[in-house]
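Note to self: keep these together.
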Amino acid sequence: MASYKELEPAKNGKPRIKITVELGYDEETGKRLRKYKTVTLNSLSDRAIKKAISEFEIEVSKSDITQAIESITFKEFRVRWLDNYVRIDLSPPRH
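Structure:
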């Protein structure tokens, strides 16, 4: 879920907002996980704000998937692969 806060206009006079995307809580520390981005818009219309928020949410979700893929070890990959594909699709037939 995302929220925004209006900021002072940029030097060129265009409005700015700060977008916050909530990502849940860290399992170990219990702290809230958030991503922030400051965006300069042409106007503060609802449509422009919603578009900026949805673009940032998509950007954050794609980066989280990429980080999860890049940080996995081979051992973790092997266990997931065995559980999700091999044991399901290639299990011996039961009589």
